[in-house]
Amino acid sequence: MIHYIVRRLLLAVPTVLGVCLVTFLLFNVFASPEAVARKQLGKNPTPAQVKAWVTAHGMDKPMFFNLNPGKDGSIRPFDSRFWNHMTELLLFRFPESDYLHEKVIDLLKQKIVPSLTITVPAFLLSILVTLPIALLIAYYRGTYIDRLALLICVILMSIVILNYIIVGQYLLAVVFKYFPIYGYDFGVGAWKFLLLPVILAVASGLGGGVRFYRTVMLNEVRADYVRTAMAKGVSEEGVLFKHVLKNAMIPILTVTVLSIPFLITGSLLLEMYFGIPGMGNLMLNAINSHDYPVIRTLVYIYSLLYIAGSILTDISYTLVDPRVVFE
Amino acid sequence: MAESHLQIAIKRIKRDRLAVSGFCVICLFAFIAFLDSIPSPRRDVGGVQWTRTVLDALFQKEVEISYSPPMTMTGILNRTEFQLKSRHLLGTNNLGEDVLYNALKGVRTAFIIGIVPSVIAAFFAIILGLLAGYYGGWVDDIIQYIYQVLSSIPGILLLIAMLMVMERGLWQLCFALGVTSWVGLCRLIRGEALKVKSMEYIEAARALGASDLRLLFRHILPNVMYLVIIEITLDFSSLVMSEAVLTYIGIGVEPGTGSWGRMIMMADRELANSIWWNLTGASVFLFALVLAFNLFADALRDALDPRLREG
Amino acid sequence: MKSIFSQLQGGKGGLVNLSSMNFVDRKVKKILVLAVLFLMAFVPSCGNNPYPPESDKLIGYTALGEDPRTLDPAQSSDTTSAEILCQFYDSLYQNAYLDRPYGVVPALAANYPEKRIFYENVQEKGKTKELARMEYVFKLRDDIYFQDDPCFPGGKGRRVTANDVIYSIKRLADPAVRSTGYWLVAGKIKGINDFFNKAAATGKADYSLEIEGLKAINDRTLKIILTEPFPAFIYVMSMPYTAPVPREAVEYYNAPDREGFSRHPVGTGAYRLKSWKRQHRIIMERSPSFRKEYYPSTGAPGDRESGLLDDAGKQLPFLDEVWYTIISTGQPIWLLFLQGYLDASGVPQEQFDRVVTKNMELSNQFVKKGISLEIASDLDIYYLAFNMRDPILGKNKYLRQALSLSYDTDLYNQIFLNGRAINAQGPLPPGVFGYDPKLKNPSKTRDLVKAKELMAKAGYPGGMDAKTGRQLELVYDIGSDSTRAREVATFDMRCFEQLGIKMKLQVNTWSQHLERSHKGTFQMFSLGWIADYPDPENFLQLLYGPNAPPNPNSSAFANPEYDRLYEKMKGMENTPEREAVIHRMVEIAIEECPWIFNVHSPSYVLRHSWNKNGKSHSISGNYRKYVRCDPEMRRAYRKAENKPNRAALFYAVALLLVLSAPAIVNKYVRRRK
Amino acid sequence: MEQVLKIEDLRTHFFTGEGVARAVDGVSVSVGKNRTLGLVGESGCGKSVTALSILRLIPSPPGKIVDGKITLSGKDILSLPEVEMRDIRGKLASMIFQEPMTSLNPVFTIGTQIIEAVRIHTDMGKAEAREIATEYLSKVGIPAPAESMSQYPHQLSGGMKQRVMIAMALCLKPALLIADEPTTALDVTIQAGILRLIKDLQAETGTAVLLITHDLGIIAEMADEVAVMYAGKVVESGPCNSIFSSFVHPYTEGLFKSLPSRTERRRKLYTISGTVPSALRFPPGCRFHTRCPLAIEKCKSEEPPLVDVDSGHRCACWVRAGGSA
Fold first, then answer.
1. Which pTM value belongs to this model?
2. Chain A within 8 Å of D57 (Cβ-Cβ)?
């Protein structure tokens, strides 16, 4: 197994390099340094200031190879934007945020916990809620209950998440006053701020989730082994909850484990709407303030997580599917 | 053969009452988008350089001072031409703009956002997927590498990064959405092309001396087209919704383009003031189109996908 | 658990046939019951208070639109950063809290500065020129200490000296600091440009270099020499840019492994930073080393009546802590304010009609809640600029006046600003020295008859060019394609079309727009200006000839008399004489009509009854220390406004049960069969 | 003789969107203890549906047993509530399926699956059930049965899987074993072994066997009685010898003719012309008339009844067996 993981990690290296290259192209080739500088320097920057900013960020260096002699006359061909960018990312020497004047890595450390406090409960709760509902619907498959439930699922899916959030906040927090409208607290006090976002996150994913799980279940229900189990005298519920569920876990696991990296991404909208100071908010702020170093670093780190997540998915297959073995 | 498949598919869809009603709604919306795409034959008043369309001419209501509830009579700046009825059927927003008109203006944007990125994505996916599946070898390796890299970057971030470095705009958004979403389809097409490639009739055509290009586009492409069509219809809903969300968080279409996301963004604060019509107007339009497409796309997939047909 | 279970199943003929239930159902039902119980019992009791339980500290609750970009006073450019760091950093002077028109009073300085104009002979291109210089001498108070901080030996804040002020000003000219306030002193303080250039050339600023115009005579006395007379310089000395910062703190916190000086303010203000969680909350607490300062005992007319002078002579600050919750969207601010969790709020535009009546008073439902409304003039002017270099508009005063006369500011105000703005008569907004409340601009009373007469006088009777007989055509530029911009433009153009003129709209991107305005290829567009400091000079410079584009005089208005008066006014003190000069300048501007003066847009602030001593100020400053609060009133209000609605929850659960009825019925039917 | 299974006029219909498919439309057969009934017919003629109907495993909706009576060891199956039906499945009657590859649950071990079958119907503890499972695994000829218990289905070959299925089906000594094409998916070399196994175990336990197949060779080897089905109906039934020696129905004749003959190598293989009619639209009259070389006018309008042509040999045909009715 260790052998397998090592091999997968080695295979991921070219992908990581590719991600670095993509971010370089996006942020160095398509974006003009002067424009970025002006956005960061506020009202009335003097040209000298702009130039100083560009120099300080190394954005005046040549793109790929630096053939100009430096101050001491030596030529350092790899002191270029491309190579600096690559070493910065690959060696985890993350830059400072242009807007917040703080190390991106420090920002991440601050933001990750609030994001997780909302995405992890939402993630677990939504599995806990959608899976049983999907099983129930699979139990009633073919009946009008199934058709009705499916229609409701499609309807729930067709409501944009904005509406869940806006109407949910309005009803539950503004009109009925069950929850705080906005805010967050670090530590245990956070729970009362998390309830509403978590409920809304679960609700907004309910339709799609139930439908997906139902499809997975029904694909399994049609399988031959189900008939065998029924012929053995296993009750329909037993078949559903034991035989079908364990088989259905395979596709479910793929989707679930792959979505784990996104737990760290946080929920952009929920964080923005409820004032949770997490990764989503960081990202939004970076967007609005054109904070390239933050976005660049986030793209890179999330890609690493995503790659790790996909390796994790493959490993987790072995837990539910005996047919999969490492080789 | 293909003909009869199509006929069977149509028959299957016709049987599904929900899908048929979904299709009708889509047609209605498409008609509105069409009206909003052809320039109005009428001349503008006062030489204002609006790029006016038939929809503008038909529905544009005058601007009021501020909010007015649904069914209010139009008022202060009396310009009585080109009005369907002299009422604000869905009221006006804080700028006094007619909500119904704004919502109708969102239809065309929704259709563009719903279709153009898919088409762009399909373009990339078809070309790269076919090449990878057909030629295999190093071509396949390179293309697989490209989409391996792209799919390793979480879509939303890649999208944000692209929109950050580009100017904001409807077409830029379409492009960014398209470029970030072709990987899945490409994978499917590659697999399908691999499968079709080894089939006997392709072998036969090759033996008859058909060129690679001809094989690719005359013989293999039609066999993977159903995947493309399914993908495009299935993606429509999520694209329309993502436009609303992206505009809401400030990286979607630029101001001045009709957009339900923008309407929702402007309206979300109004609920507390019991001004519900603006939010409701945008949301209902969005919901209706998305629901119609969801219902229709499901039926279409069930009807077209041979894998499901046999199952 | 079991008892609840059976209760829920009901007695006779319960919803479900219990005997036939198997293990799966039981599990599902258990989860359902748990969920319902959770909803019923737990949710309403969690309460909607967004703050931790209150202690006996007196806390003020405020909202902030975004994180401050920086807490380094040399870098602040946005109002959000300024709002926060002004509380930490006092400058030599501060904006007078209650006085209107705006003025400054000493803060760290012991008194107003001594000023002197002297002349100096300068060699320029071989010729000797005599130039006027201005010398300021500032005296610092004796009891000013930096806030206690680990960067000082023993953690005790040291006394502030004149050298600290010099250090702070030098920082503005250090390219590495990336100061956004350098332009305020660049070219003004003698020798500061040399300092900047040297630093830029070597890549590192040498703070031991002397700047000619900056001298510490002794620990308490500071001399500044300006390259020209500029009385408004006292405003520069009241801005946070020039607030003294301790060199120890800069060096200590900018060490590689520390979080940076921009995150760790060490100043002399009434408050110091207690905690700052990004995108969440900034908490500031009373600084124990704050100097003895007292609430002002004089104010603007009406302040005594409205109770703003009740606390006169009391020691500042009043609040133990101020909590700034960062809320990026407007709606939560408004809702939290209504729930009593914020002490003050603006009036959101979409709420305006509901909050403010047609007579510009607070509507009854808010008055009943004890909320009060303050309408404060912001120092701004919105206007339509004509291009004075344009061959048609630039040469034709009557045409410009006619256009001005045809413009309906009142209707504009109604449509686009809920009628909240003030009809501008001239370039100066209320609250600025030299503003004349009695001023009546003859071209600002909408009068189409008169406008048409002027059109004839201008050579365009009925909008037709008298010479060529062709209809006059004018181009209106907008710099954005937003709906709003188009709406406004359409409105403006409709006004002018009534004179028979043909209007064309030119839609630009912002960069195109700037280019057109720099090249002077436009004819008219609308603009706004918000003051940097409360001196009329800041507004009147917008029409000063040498300030033509790319500088802020977008109209490229050039009038020799105006320019001469401007140069004179710039160096004058706020005397009646200066006022007369300003009035004359305004008169010229009105007569020549390079702009259509549109509106001044005031700000509307709502305050709860417990929020005492609130008064809005257009320019950022250290105002938190004046604010007082009555916690009892606040507690009572919050309690009354935040009762959760339990009935709705009950109905929701009932609805859920009804929705799940088909499944239960179906199950029952199946069993029977 | 004691009848273990007696099916009378069974009708199982499927109610689909396109109409009612009468997959089984009036089938009556019976099997006695220790006997084997072979059910023969082309695919789609309703054999499997009949089998599934016995265990009431018809997917419902859309399927439904609309009429008929099934008696299994004296119990009226169709009137039992679902809960009691569960006790019958696997205990009184068990079933093995065509696809051994997919019929076992891939994510459980073989042991788990057999033990589950045992424990559902008995009060045995885990250890006891394991013993029985191991015993039966060795009985069906699995080498190293104890080790195989912890193996997963994918680790076994197709033949082994089918043996596991048989072990699972017989471990509770059911009165009836339904074998639905048990060897179709297997290699020819393995087929004989599986069939032998079924026969051996039948001899040991006295189980009645309902063998469903389209392979007349297997019938010849295994069955005591034969019923030939066409389009949801039994067209000919009787003792194996009688049918093989003197088939009456033209359809049966067609089936036999289409067997590759050992004696006449040169002759072209016979095929029954036309295709099986869709269950949605059975032709009126005799359902075989559209393909029958002997069809007369009467066949097109009236349905032939099943009549005795020999002792216990019954046939439904107007032409060959019609005169007497």
1. 0.80
2. yes
